[in-house]
Amino acid sequence: MLISAWAAPGLAQDRPAESPSPETEGVEVRVPAGRDWEAPPGVDLTAGFAEGFDASVDEAGLEHGTREWVLVPIPFKNALLGAGLQVGLGRLYRPEDRPDQKQTSMFGFGGMYAEGGSWAGVVGDRRYWRGGRLRTTLEAGLGNIGYDVNLSALLNGLRLPVQQDFSGGLFKVGYEVRDRVWLSAGFKAARTTLTIEMPELDSGNFSLLPNLDYQMALLDIAAEWDSRSDQFYPLDGALITAGLSFSDQALGADTRYQVYELSYNGYRALNERNTLAWRIAGKTVAGDPPFFSLAWYGSGVDLRGYAPGTYIGKSQATVQGEWRWQATKRIGFVAFGGVGGIWGEVPVFEQDDFLPAGGIGLRWRLTEKFRVNFRIDYAWGKDDEVLLISAGEAF
Question: pLDDT tens for residues 12-34?
Answer without folding.
Answer: 333 333 334 444 344 333 333 33
